Amino acid sequence: MITTSTDPFGRSRGYRLVDGGTSRGFELIARAQPATWLRVTGSYTYADADPPSRTPTDLTQAYGMPRHNLSLTLLQHIGAHLQTDLAFSASSSYFAPVSDRVSFITRTYRFQGLRRLDLHAGYDFFLSDKLRLRVFGKIENATGQAYFESGFRTTGRIFGLGTMLAF
């Protein structure tokens, strides 16, 4: 904690930098195209990130860093005009500090990992040799799982529609 008597600038509150820990791990990525109209991409990341010094002694991983991350994406072209993709992401639980708005006391919480499914589709209208109109839509977090990012609750399902003009 910063105190006026020990801070060289006379501050009574603020942030203090702490020594970082060591991070190590690996990432595997695989891509395949089993058919001309289908591309599959998968990845796995293992991160072993030591917590910084002067953090709770029972903290086994650095804040905001899940130990395991997995993703799988299927991209499909249906004819020359329609493209769809399905993306799945998952991670293990992670720790994050959360401050109480009233007492300003910070506590460390373990948040459940992410399980998220996103769906996207786009249709291209070729208006000329150099002009293309794309109409697209998306559903993010299609399963509606309640999860947290860096200690903040996400919004749930997200729907979107849009257009793009390329020339």
Number of helices, where a helix is a run of at least 4 consecutive DSSP H or I residues: 0
Summed up, the domain count is 1
Strand content: over 45%
The gyration radius over C-alpha positions equals 22 Å
- The succession of helices and strands, N to C, reads EEEEEEEEEEE
Residue-averaged pLDDT, rounded?
86
The strand order across the widest sheet is 1-2-3-4-7-8-11
State the helical fraction: under 10%
Largest sheet: 7 strands, antiparallel
Q: Which blocks of ≥5 consecutive residues have pLDDT under 50? A: none
**What is the terminal separation in angstroms?**
56 Å
Strand-helix topology:
Blueprint: E1 23-35, E2 38-49, E3 68-78, E4 82-91, E5 94-99, E6 106-111, E7 115-126, E8 132-140, E9 148-149, E10 152-153, E11 158-166
Antiparallel strand pairs: 1-2, 2-3, 3-4, 4-7, 5-6, 7-8, 8-11, 9-10
Plain-language structure description:
The mean pLDDT is 86. 0% of the residues lie in helices and 55% in strands. It is elongated. It has one domain (23-166). It contains no helices and eleven strands. It has strands at residues 23-35, 38-49, 68-78, 82-91, 94-99, 106-111, 115-126, 132-140, 148-149, 152-153, 158-166.
